[in-house]
Request: fold
Amino acid sequence: MITTPALFYIFSAVLLFAAFRVITARSPVYAALYLVLAFFSASCVWMLLRAEFLSITLILVYVGAVMVLFLFVVMMLDINVDAMRAGFWKHAPVAGGVGLVIALEMAAVLIPGFNLPSAPAPDAADLKLGNTKLLGIEIYTQYLYPLQIAAVLLLVAIIAAIALTLRQRKDTKHTDASEQVKAKKRDRVRLVKMQPTVERSEAAADSTKPTGESS
Reply:
């Protein structure tokens, strides 16, 4: 179909424009918004390539969670953009050289992958299942142990990040749940018996009379 290549070139052009604006936008908020646009365009390209799982994952994980959190952090921080851009042109040649080396390395790795023999035609049963279901079958059958190892590594990384950032501050008040559970009624409320009426002494009664009134 002619529509699919046209949409591919449109989304690719939007992706390149958004990626360029991410590194050239003066405001960090605008840069984050252009990055959201770049992710969305990449998701559309993957959808055209029939990689539905990767497309939806990119929208849900990066656009829906990571970028929203990053955008809130950028908006709450007071970032001095002028100080950040002070040495931009000074370090631009070095950054361009490093980017060129990275691009060449990626090309050396990816270009041989395109020179593959023709892939076998998929079975009719595979076409009925869909890409997402086939990917799930491959992950949870042939790659089950690597998936579990990756999950354990992510769990260890999460626990390590929490442990590294956990600091006991002495200037803040916190509650101990175990102490709250052990609390008894007698520790919270103390009933005191008091007389219903108190008799006034004569001296106190005299002091309350107006001046000049005799008893």
About this structure: Residues 88-114 form the longest helix (27 residues). Residues 145 and 151 are 10 Å apart (CA to CA). The radius of gyration is 35 Å.
